[in-house]
């Protein structure tokens, strides 16, 4: 077995010890004689798994009691509809468009009401986060929507927008559990798990209880009603059991690593290694405004497409996977999620230095 | 490692050799240095997996070229909304209600149009399949809906209903790949994979191409529009990659076992062992009409609740898991899906004989 350094933007690298445990428990989960994949979701064994998974997440994020934790299918893309269908009582919402995913969410919301784009950074290929201290928040806005870390472009909100008292809804898919957050600042904070937490196929949505009601837009499917899932402890129908199980193991790993405070420190250290190099390199440079740099997704270019392609090819041959940038941006991108070890970033920078010297 | 005989109705037993392979490939899939869970869904490696999975399913089921195969999230419960949202052009559909899942589908469809219950077996606790040779099919029905195998009650359509030329939509979750079917008889044939195929968290929908259009009901979310997924080869957003991978392995296993013709023979043999015993036992009896018996789910009772409870308890202690019947039916239920070996059914019948003798 030989593992590579995997810089994929998602699905992405998982902690090696988690994978090892999953493999060991595959034929026989803790003496029960079956795999977690084979367990009835109504069994005591699986109930223990989902309960403990939720509890560990609540501990890690300090989730207050008046917030529900839901394990949902369909990805963030399904939330783009689910959010307006459940929250748009006045049929008005404000969207801050800082990348492709925020834009898709904004476009989807237009099906259900007046979705206002109150700020955007599309003028400069989403390479920055707009000033959100005094935006024209709509008087009757049901919520203000953001995508907190922009996977493709490599930006992140360092401060939450001033919503002027309106509810904040945030997609944190690519910065989920990368640092502590104050859950009470959000109405809904949610993310797909396939970047920083587990295998693809699940969203975790953390929702303030009073927002979970039967008063949804007409025609909202039962499965797209938060209340359906909240009332059933995320088991209205069979959930993605295996994903819940793997996420649970990642939560244990995060606790062992020291929790989100420690992860933040580690992530800052990792990102600094890469950004410091980019800032002094004569060949490579980062593509986003320094103040808005993501700790998780680091896009960079040489400024020469052929050289970019050469770098991607040679880095792969050297054991660095998935460094090619998103097709809409080009260049390179290193996603350095929680599970990427510091050694992976150090090795990448060493490789970049060598490449720079060899290709001056 | 000690494996039990797992009679769970779903999630359910998987082939041991599939689990073994999954465990072996967990840290390093075929020398690529990562787990399938860690792979970008846009990578060549994963593309090979999803393509081969679809191809093997097409081979197994002889799916014609004018049918699309979609890998979707949200379970059958989400299809209950997705089907009317995509197909109810006239806002009329006919439902045959033969169990809890057909009933839920019928109820959900009422949100979107006139959903007629044209037949039901609820009068006798869903213990039979109604005569469907000459039902009052609505003249303007967009489709006729059935649940082909009723997991909870243990019934199965031995013949498809006469839809009088209308489109047939069928939920085959609990008989998926248990025997050959003629796909051309369906407009949509779909099922959750967590019973007969793989881990929970995915539905496979096989849809006639001409039914996949942009002409959906107003307010249909992008993610609930079949065309979204069909146009993107089930990768509009990140799919349940790990589930696709495991299902792919089960398809290889089915091919190796001789395909669906061989599975049918094997399943009939397995079911006969259990039904033959039930028919001659003086303690146990099956709960459904013989002509409508499912090959997959076999509910049975002693007629005495205390004895039922004793049986469930003692069978579990003897290594037979999940024999307790569904809470709405009581008694016992043995789900004997494709991956349940004949030896498991033989061992169960031997145990039942012993129990009968000991408790006369």
From TrEMBL, chains A, B:
- Quote the catalytic activity from the record: O-phospho-L-serine + 2-oxoglutarate = 3-phosphooxypyruvate + L-glutamate; 4-(phosphooxy)-L-threonine + 2-oxoglutarate = (R)-3-hydroxy-2-oxo-4-phosphooxybutanoate + L-glutamate
Answer yes or no on keyword Transferase.
Answer: yes
Give EC number(s), comma-separated. 2.6.1.52
Name the Pfam families for this protein.
Aminotran_5
**Under which pathway is this protein filed?**
Amino-acid biosynthesis; L-serine biosynthesis; L-serine from 3-phospho-D-glycerate: step 2/3
Which amino acids does the record list as binding pyridoxal 5'-phosphate? 76-77, 101, 151, 171, 194, 237-238
Record's subcellular location: Cytoplasm
Q: Sites of the modification N6-(pyridoxal phosphate)lysine?
A: 195
Task: Kindly give the InterPro entries that the UniProt entry links to this protein.
Answer: Aminotrans_V_dom (IPR000192), Pser_aminoTfrase (IPR022278), PyrdxlP-dep_Trfase (IPR015424), PyrdxlP-dep_Trfase_major (IPR015421), PyrdxlP-dep_Trfase_small (IPR015422)
Q: Where is the Aminotransferase class V domain?
A: 4-348
Q: Which GO terms describe its molecular function?
A: O-phospho-L-serine:2-oxoglutarate aminotransferase activity
Task: Give cofactor(s), names only.
Answer: pyridoxal 5'-phosphate
> Mostly located where?
cytoplasm
Query: Which domain of life, per UniProt?
Result: Bacteria
- What broad class of enzyme is this? transferase
| Keywords on record | Amino-acid biosynthesis, Aminotransferase, Cytoplasm, Pyridoxal phosphate, Serine biosynthesis, Transferase
Instruction: Indicate the quaternary assembly.
Output: Homodimer.
Q: Which family does it belong to?
A: Belongs to the class-V pyridoxal-phosphate-dependent aminotransferase family. SerC subfamily.
**What PANTHER family does the record point to?**
PHOSPHOSERINE AMINOTRANSFERASE (PTHR43247)
Purpose of the protein: Catalyzes the reversible conversion of 3-phosphohydroxypyruvate to phosphoserine and of 3-hydroxy-2-oxo-4-phosphonooxybutanoate to phosphohydroxythreonine.
Q: What is this protein called?
A: Phosphoserine aminotransferase
- Organism, as annotated: Jingyaoa shaoxingensis
Top-level taxonomy: Bacteria, Bacillati, Bacillota, Clostridia, Lachnospirales
């Amino acid at each position: 077995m030989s593992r590579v350094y995997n810089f994929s933007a998602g699905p992405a690298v998982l902690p090696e010890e988690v994978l090892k445990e999953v493999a060991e428990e595959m034929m026989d989960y803790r003496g029960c004689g079956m795999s977690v994949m084979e367990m009835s979701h109504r069994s005591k064994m699986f109930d223990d798994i989902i309960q403990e998974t939720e509890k560990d997440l609540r501990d890690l994020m300090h989730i207050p009691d008046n917030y529900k934790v839901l394990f949902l299918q369909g990805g963030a893309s399904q939330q783009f509809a689910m959010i307006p269908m459940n929250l748009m009582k006045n049929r008005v919402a404000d969207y801050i468009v800082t990348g492709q995913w925020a834009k898709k969410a904004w476009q989807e919301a237009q099906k259900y009401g007046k979705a206002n784009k109150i700020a955007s950074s599309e003028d400069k290929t989403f390479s920055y986060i707009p000033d959100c201290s005094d935006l024209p928040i709509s008087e009757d806005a049901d919520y203000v929507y953001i995508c907190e870390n922009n996977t493709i472009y490599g930006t992140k909100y360092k401060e939450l927008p001033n919503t002027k008292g309106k509810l904040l809804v945030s997609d944190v898919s690519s910065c989920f559990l990368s640092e502590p957050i104050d859950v009470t600042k959000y109405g809904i904070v949610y993310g797909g798990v396939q970047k920083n937490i587990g295998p693809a196929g699940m969203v975790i949505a953390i929702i303030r209880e009073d927002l979970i009601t039967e008063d949804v837009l007409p025609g909202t499917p039962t499965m797209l009603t938060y209340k359906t899932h909240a009332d059933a402890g995320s088991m209205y129908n069979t959930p993605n059991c295996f994903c819940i199980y793997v996420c649970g193991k990642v939560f244990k790993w995060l606790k062992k690593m020291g929790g989100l405070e420690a992860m933040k420190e580690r992530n800052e250290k990792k990102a600094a290694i890469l950004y410091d190099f980019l800032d002094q390199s004569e060949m490579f440079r980062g593509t986003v405004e320094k103040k808005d740099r993501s700790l998780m997704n680091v896009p960079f270019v040489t400024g020469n497409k052929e050289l970019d392609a050469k770098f991607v090819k040679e880095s792969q041959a050297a054991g660095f996977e998935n460094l090619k940038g998103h097709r809409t941006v080009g260049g390179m991108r290193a996603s350095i999620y929680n599970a990427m070890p510091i050694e992976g970033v150090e090795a990448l920078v060493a490789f970049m230095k060598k490449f720079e010297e060899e290709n001056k």
